[in-house]
TrEMBL record:
It comes from the Bacteria. The lineage of its organism: Bacteria, Bacillati, Actinomycetota, Actinomycetes, Geodermatophilales. It holds the Pfam family Pyridoxal_deC. This is Amino acid decarboxylase, pyridoxal-dependent protein. GO terms for biological process: carboxylic acid metabolic process. Belongs to the group II decarboxylase family. One of its GO terms (molecular function) is aromatic-L-amino-acid decarboxylase activity. Its cofactor is pyridoxal 5'-phosphate. It comes from Modestobacter italicus (strain DSM 44449 / CECT 9708 / BC 501). Keywords: Decarboxylase, Lyase, Pyridoxal phosphate. The modification N6-(pyridoxal phosphate)lysine is found at K295. Gene3D superfamilies: Aspartate Aminotransferase, domain 1 (3.90.1150.10), Type I PLP-dependent aspartate aminotransferase-like (Major domain) (3.40.640.10).
């Protein structure tokens, strides 16, 4: 038995050394990867063709072959795709989760991690101002969290229409109508596809991507009474950071008998801040909510959170009982996600909450917004730049005039390597999109990032005049 335990030591020592090296290099590291996936794949295949190696050697080889291809996502200068960093306490907890190797589906079988996850879920519900007693499931991300929540919604509206979807399937039953804002996130569409609900109907939005309640009212009035309906609202637009009028829209939808779901992958965390809670007014009046802890809360990938007001509806949609499982009379983890087998991804959430406390979570969210607003001010001062959105949360969209110039600036920023900001299209225009999500971002990162974009603008304009050179790597 001792020999088996000792066998882990060399691998863990090697992993710790490489992890420390990676984390200490982040402040000065170029953000983009230096190697392509094809290059890494070729080397990985070459190593697999060699004789077996010891655990420490394998870890050393893995670090060496992967490191050039790593994106510095947990750098304070990474602002792409709404990806958070990793809080120290959550990283340590995640290492323990891997070491414990608990399959967190049955609370009676794995009470150590199930109990920690339940406590984390209760705290999240409290922190976000959601109804006490709501069911909480820890999923892979917002896509599967949306899927879990909308499965409960599908069950609820079809049961109300007299159709047992879990027994009969969708064929032959009444069609479920799903309404979303025209600027909703594609993860909602994907969740609906998983659930067999098809493409949703789009409702008009304003210039910041917020769903218009007058348009929602017309859409709801346009269907016969009793039509099974789900309304998906958004807390945090991917480009503008804007929030749908959650309370008013939820009340309107409920008057028509609809289920109300809130997709809040990163925006739901505004509810944790007294200074920002007005953005999510009426949030608690929905029926389900989805968010990511690996975004704003900065726990390691992957960790989504699905919350449903009525646990019985979530169990009815997702729960499973069979003779070989250790079932209980209360909600099991397997009853609230789309997975039967999973790691204890809620444990790093508990560690994040324990390390920050309620005030610390609020300060984290406030700080992200402050840095986004500082970036917007700095970028708006660059030649030909215009910030296109109202920077009320963590998102900034910048145009540099024509689509061609904006795309060229975006490419030059990425080539420079100091910072990563994503190119995108919003409101019919090419934009440089900034998403501030990392707990470690500070004022120096903001200043360095604005300077990097300034260099990119100068390089692009210099090339157009035939006098410039590309940004230095």
């Amino acid at each position: 038995m001792g020999a088996a335990a000792d066998a882990y030591d060399e691998a863990l020592r090697a992993a710790a050394e490489h992890a420390r090296s990676w984390l200490h290099e982040l402040p000065d590291r170029r953000v983009p990867p230096a190697a392509t996936a094809d290059e890494v794949r070729a080397r990985a295949l070459e190593l697999l063709s060699q004789p077996p190696a010891g655990a420490a050697q394998v870890v050393d080889e893995l670090a060496a072959l992967a490191e050039p291809g790593l994106m510095a996502i947990n750098s304070g200068r990474f602002f792409g795709w709404v990806m958070g960093g990793v809080l120290p306490a959550s990283l340590g907890a995640d290492w323990l989760v891997s070491s414990w190797d608990q399959n967190t589906g049955m609370r009676a079988a794995t009470p150590g991690v199930a109990g920690v996850e339940e406590a984390a879920g209760e705290w999240l519900v409290h922190l976000l101002g959601l109804p006490a007693g709501s069911a909480v499931g820890f999923s892979t991300g917002a896509t599967t969290a949306n899927t879990s929540c909308l499965a409960a919604g599908r069950h609820a509206v079809l049961t109300g229409a007299g159709w047992a979807v879990e027994e009969e399937g969708l064929a032959g039953g009444p069609r479920v109508r799903v309404l979303v804002g025209a600027d909703s996130h594609v993860s909602v569409d994907l969740a609906l596809r998983y659930l067999g609900l098809g493409r949703p109907e789009q409702v008009a939005v304003d210039d910041q991507g917020r769903l218009r309640t007058d348009a929602l009212a017309r859409a709801l009035d346009g269907a016969p009474a009793g039509t099974p309906t789900i309304v998906c609202l958004q807390a945090g637009n991917l480009h503008s950071g804007a929030f749908d009028p959650l309370g008013d829209a939820a009340d309107l939808a409920h008057r028509h008998g609809a289920w109300v779901h809130v997709d809040g992958a990163f925006g739901l965390w505004a509810a944790a801040s007294p200074a920002l809670a007005h953005l999510v007014g009426g949030l608690d009046r929905a029926d389900s909510w989805a968010t990511d802890a690996h975004k704003t809360l900065n726990v390691p990938y992957d960790c989504g959170v699905a919350v449903v007001r009525d646990p019985a509806l979530m169990r009815a949609a997702l729960g499973v009982r069979t003779s070989y499982l250790l079932s209980s009379d209360v909600t099991d983890p397997v009853d609230v996600t789309v997975e039967m087998s999973r790691r204890a991804r809620g444990v790093p959430v508990w560690a994040a909450l324990r390390s920050l406390g309620q005030a610390g979570v609020a300060a984290l969210v406030d700080r992200l917004v402050e840095h986004a607003q500082a970036l917007a001010r700095g970028l708006a001062g660059l030649d030909g730049a215009a910030v296109l959105n109202d920077v009320v949360y963590t998102q900034v969209c910048v145009s540099f005039g024509s689509d061609e110039r904006t795309a060229a600036v975006t490419a030059a920023v990425i080539s420079d390597g100091t910072v990563w900001m994503s190119g995108s299209r919003w409101a019919g225009r090419a934009v440089l999109r900034v998403s501030v999500s990392n707990w470690s971002t500070d004022a120096a990162d903001v200043e360095a990032s604005v300077d990097a974009v300034r260099r990119a603008v100068a390089a692009v304009d210099g090339r157009r005049r035939g006098t410039g050179t590309p940004p230095a790597p």
